[in-house]
Amino acid sequence: MKKTLITLTLLAASTLAAHAEGTPSHLDRVLQKGAINVCTTGDYKPYSFLNKEGQYEGIDIAMAQSLATSLGVKVNWVPTTWKTMMSDMTSNNCDIAMGGISVTLARQQKAWFAETLDQDGKIPLVRCENVRKYQTIAQLNLPTVRLIEPAGGTNEAFVRSHLPDAKLALHDNVTIFQQLVDKKADVMITDASEALFQQKHYPKLCAVNPKKPLQYGEKAYMLPRDDVSWKMYVDQWLHLSKANGDYQNLVSKWLAVKK
């Protein structure tokens, strides 16, 4: 059975490569130009954040630099937003998109993903005194519940799909947490990883049931579709980063950071 799966995988890769014949791989393009175009939003700690000095920092920023080093090239940061990320990808502005990106079937229709980084899922982030109040979809999906989300990402999509009766406001993903603290909103639905990170920096906020998400999710780096050679390279680099402990050490370092 295992041999059959391997054979089918290789056959599929060969077929896709044949279809792409004559189109330069992003792998070749990156090596030729000496730079990799990394699209990132810069608004999603601990993965990607544009600091006050105008420098990007975070888990995926360090991983982008690691990928560039493995290729012997420099990083060319391409600013994007959650609304425009897919159009940047399909317009060939990105060799890769990084920064806490959730895998969805809608995104898979237009782009590819590298191998899964981590499992994640949507949970409520609330003021700590309200943890028991906002546990379930039924408790959240009420007209009296003030939700706040960044525009254009999977958080907004989840809310519009699962919590249509709640009151939704859209806000930038940098100051959104202070809005919760200041009682200008009640709940933010976000990935468990972000909620756990932010509650360390905002003591009045608590992640609700981070081990029992309202919706299962995965995170991965987004790649241009139908480029087998590029995907295989990124997957192998990521596999080695995990196998030698570099990725987990980086994650542990960032998740342990305290302001």
Provide a concise account of the structure shown.
Keywords: Signal. With 259 residues, this protein is α/β, with parallel strands linked by helices.
Structure description:
A hairpin with a 3-residue loop joins strand 2 and strand 3. The protein has 259 residues and is α/β, with parallel strands linked by helices. It contains 11 helices and 14 strands. Residues 35-258 form the Solute-binding protein family 3/N-terminal domain.
Main sheet record? 4 strands, antiparallel
By secondary-structure content and strand pairing, the structural class works out as alpha/beta
The end-to-end span amounts to 51 Å
Amount of helix: 40-55%
How many beta-strand runs?
A: 14
Shape: elongated
Give the H and E element order.
HHEEEEHEHEHEEHEHEHEHEEEHH
- Rg computed from alpha carbons, rounded to a whole number of angstroms: 19 Å
Beta-strand fraction estimate: 15-25%
Q: What number is the mean pLDDT?
A: 90
Structure annotation, total helices: 11
Uncertain residue ranges: 1-8
Pfam families: SBP_bac_3 (PF00497)
Signal peptide: 1-20
Domain Solute-binding protein family 3/N-terminal: 35-258
Keywords: Signal
Q: What is the topological layout?
A:
Layout: H1 2-19, H2 26-33, E1 35-40, E2 43-44, E3 48-50, E4 56-57, H3 59-71, E5 74-79, H4 85-90, E6 96-97, H5 105-108, E7 111-113, E8 118-127, H6 137-140, E9 146-149, H7 154-162, E10 167-170, H8 176-181, E11 187-191, H9 192-201, E12 205-207, E13 215-219, E14 222-224, H10 228-243, H11 246-255
Parallel strand pairs: 1-5, 1-6, 9-10
Antiparallel strand pairs: 2-3, 3-4, 7-14, 8-11, 8-12, 8-13
